[in-house]
Amino acid sequence: MWAITVKELRQLRRDHRMLALIVAMPLVMLIVFGYAASFDVTEVRTIVVGPDAVAAAAQAPDLLRVDSIRPDQGRADAIETLRDGDAVAAIVTSGPRPVALLDGSSLFSARTAAAALVPAGIVPEVLFNPGLETSAVLVPGLMGLVLLFVGTVITSLGVVRERQAGTLEQLAVMPFRPRDVVAGKVLPYLLIAAVDMLVVVIAGLVLFDVPFNGSPLLFALAAGMFLLVTLGVGVLISTASENQGQAVMVALMTLLPQVLLSGLIFPVEAMAPGVRWIAYLLPLRYFIDVSRGVLVRGAPASALVFPLSMLAVLGVVVFTLAVLRFRRDLAPHTGTGAGPSAPARPELAEAGVE
Asked: Beta 123-127 vs 99-103: how paired, if at all?
């Protein structure tokens, strides 16, 4: 037994990737998530509209960060600003008493702002999610989490399975370009994830009464772009892993930051500035912006240009890296990375047999 234990420890010591995952990653994750895990909202993006906008802005609670004062606008303009996601709160001074419109899709910010507005003499009014129900905000994010799991964890086993089964050499000698192989491995999971997405959306609408106030086509576009990013990440992980154990561990390591730093559970505004920037590198962050915007607020495409553009950029970057990495994996077996002319059995080639 002791000999087997020593053998396993030596083997683990030689596997630098696995050693780093076991030792270094938990420490990094503890530090990052320790600063990110917070429900405390310290500021709420706010605009003030109406004839008394200047006075109302001066009397607003410190929690409300007034970004814009618009005396020439009214309630309709404030609602449009909230729908577009440009603010979380809008103080309207058109009536006899100031009213603060709150974006209910920003659950924690709206709750915190509502509690701070009453002592200030401002009446809070919640839009888009009037009951401030958790399911209306959480389920759209969980839809992205399902896609993330299918796209990253399951797809990450693809190339690793080929390598362990010894069929990577067969792919290398076939007349396929690396991007063709990547596309061929992605398409089946794309179809599976699309079916999962449809099931999750229907379940969310029926079981949890999640509203669908926006365009289905816009939501489908965002879901498709997000799927391509997650599938690309899965392929990239598989090309960088030596076995299925490593692939699963790395995939899980990429899942946890997206769950905790994307705004799915903890509001991004409540995160420490030192880790908040990580959220803007995560594809789930942008899918959550789009899904909550389309489903809950009914936001138009013009208001979601930035998250959709970021999903497109991330998709291009991830798939480019996956193709380049896969080409490098094929190169040792082909000699050139293009492979149909390379012999399938090197020992026969050395013997002069074609």
From this structure: parallel
